[in-house]
Write a structure and sequence with these properties.
The structure is a single chain. Helix 7 links the parallel strand 12 and strand 13. This protein is globular. It has helices at about 40-50, 75-80, 90-95, 150-155, 160-180, 185-190, 200-215, 245-260, 300-305, 355-370, 410-420, 425-440, 455-460, and strands at about 15, 30-35, 55-60, 65-70, 85-90, 100-110, 115-120, 130, 135-140, 140-145, 155, 195, 230-235, 260-265, 270, 275-280, 285, 290, 295-300, 315, 330, 335, 385-390, 395-400, 405. An eight-stranded mixed sheet has the order 1-8-7-6-3-2-9-21. Strands 11-18-12-13-14 form a five-stranded parallel sheet. The longest helix has 20 residues, at about 160-180. Helix 1 (about 40-50) packs parallel to helix 10 and helix 5 (about 160-180) runs antiparallel to helix 6. Helices cover about 30% and strands about 20% of the residues.
């Protein structure tokens, strides 16, 4: 059967890239990158700059047509940045790569085949496709780690995607609208109670930004005051933001409590059934908002591959960002357990965070190019520079290169650091312009929750009544 250079065949037919441009020329190396996040996008970006089109053909498989710059999700939720500026379109920044929007379901590295499901369903003539490759870069990232807590799947919302961030913003403002209009004191109390589970970056920054936004929004409600709202942060360990160090973590606890936030350490969420958050310390909070940010786990595709994994389910990798004991397989980021050769003790893996992921992508791409051209590989080595976190507008905490900052200086460093890391000059300029305008004009506090159900009004007019949207299930 004929091979297709730029299209994929469905069903059981394998789709392979064109391996040559003319008779007698060396075949092009087929590079498959699974994942369009930090590692996937930055690796593809560097490979398309360093490899000639007659050397390799690069295919990127991603469930979304964009990369999400996750450090900006809290500001997007607070309305400081537009959602479209938090994401980077893959097709725009990777013009020399082939982008396949789909989810990798299985990888048979021994046969060099990846099975991918695309947006088209079987009924629509779609179905799984198989992509052949010569070199594999596995960078699917991670997924939210949930626990079998009663009511969690039904009522909680995560904070890992731009859709969740904007949905949460709309939800918080909607709860304030409900509280402002109801005559039921129990409903009002539940609507104005917001419970966040997880004291890491996602939980603390999301709570800090949204509480700050809601406090600002309260001035436009005739019957809601900031002290009417109850914000609760639940953390299972004895501290929050461990990345910024004990001293800055303690400062963050004091700052949040000064703002009236109910911070509960060494406490777990036991249930949120019937819209009641029950904690392990016996506290009960009637609430319509539970935000779950309590950790991540390896992507399911890792378990559906024949590549070696460690006891935690992450890919066992070398310091050269190759998969241990396997040829032509590379990995980095959340999916990979990469040894930290800068750590004093041996056997320590690099932390699964964006700081390492971006830098690992550079080394991975360079090593892959060197491997194709018969050169030497370089070990990944990066000393942790530190951490910055935003706690709301003009509020932050930072521990960078041994220097500890808090308040406005830390918030300014947070913005400056992440602006420098946003890919493409176009995106940097847009974010900077939006920050400048937000400093000159008032915040927007409108809820656009109807965006989640765009056909509701039409269905109602057609006489069928609004239908519930299909529920998302974890893949």
């Amino acid at each position: 059967m004929d091979k297709l250079p730029a299209t994929l065949r469905h069903g059981t037919v394998k789709a392979a890239n064109s391996r040559g441009t003319a008779p007698g020329t060396p075949p092009r190396t087929r590079i498959l990158i699974v994942g369009g996040g930090y590692v996937g996008m930055y690796t593809a970006l560097r490979l398309q700059r360093k490899l000639r089109t007659d050397e390799a053909e690069i295919t990127v498989v991603s469930p979304e047509p964009y990369m999400t710059y996750q450090p900006f999700l809290p500001e997007a939720a607070a309305g400081s940045i537009s959602p479209r500026h938090v994401v980077v379109p893959l097709r725009r920044v990777l013009p020399k790569c082939r982008i396949v929007i789909g989810e990798a379901r299985q990888i048979d590295h021994a046969a060099r085949i990846a099975t991918v499901t695309t947006l088209a369903t079987d009924e629509e003539g779609g179905g799984p496709i198989e992509i052949e490759y010569d070199e594999l870069v596995l960078a699917p990232g991670s997924v939210s780690r949930t626990l079998p807590i009663p009511g969690l799947a039904e009522y909680a919302i995560g904070f890992k995607t731009v859709e969740e961030a904007i949905g949460l913003r709309n939800h918080v403002i909607e709860q304030m609208d409900i509280a402002s209009s109801t005559r039921d004191p129990a409903l009002r109390d539940a609507a104005l109670t917001f419970v966040f589970v997880g004291g890491g970056y996602a939980g603390v920054e999301a709570l800090g930004e949204l509480e700050d936004m809601a406090r600002y929004a309260a001035r436009y409600y005739h019957n809601i005051k900031p002290e009417d709202m109850k914000w609760v942060l639940v953390e299972a360990s004895d501290r929050i933001l461990p990345e910024v160090g004990p001293e800055m973590g303690t400062y963050t606890i004091r700052e949040l409590r000064r703002r009236g936030i109910d911070l509960r350490l060494e406490t777990r969420l036991e249930s949120c059934e019937d819209r009641i958050a029950v904690l392990s310390d016996g506290a009960r909070f009637p609430t319509r908002t539970v935000v779950w940010t309590a950790g991540v786990k390896p992507h399911p595709i890792l378990a559906a591959s024949d590549l070696p994994k460690n006891e935690r389910g992450r890919l066992a990798c070398t310091s050269f960002l190759t998969v241990e004991g396997v040829e032509h397989a590379w990995a980095a980021g959340d999916a990979a357990s990469v040894p930290d050769i800068t750590a004093p003790e041996k056997g320590v893996a690099c932390a699964p965070n964006a700081q390492h992921a971006v830098r690992q992508a550079t080394v991975l791409a360079d090593n892959l190019v060197s491997s194709l051209r018969g050169g030497l590989l370089t070990e990944y080595a990066h000393r942790y520079a530190g951490s910055v976190a935003s706690l709301g507008f003009h509020k932050g905490v930072a521990h960078v290169y041994g220097r500890k900052l808090k308040g406005y200086p830390a918030w300014l460093m947070h913005r400056a650091y992440h602006l420098s890391r946003v890919p493409t000059f176009n995106r940097k300029a847009r974010v900077l312009a939006e920050w400048t305008l937000s400093g000159l004009f008032k915040r927007e506090i409108v809820s656009l929750g109807s965006l989640e159900h765009p056909r509701a009004e039409f269905e109602l007019a057609a006489g069928g009544g609004p239908k519930d949207p299909p529920k998302k299930t974890e893949g």
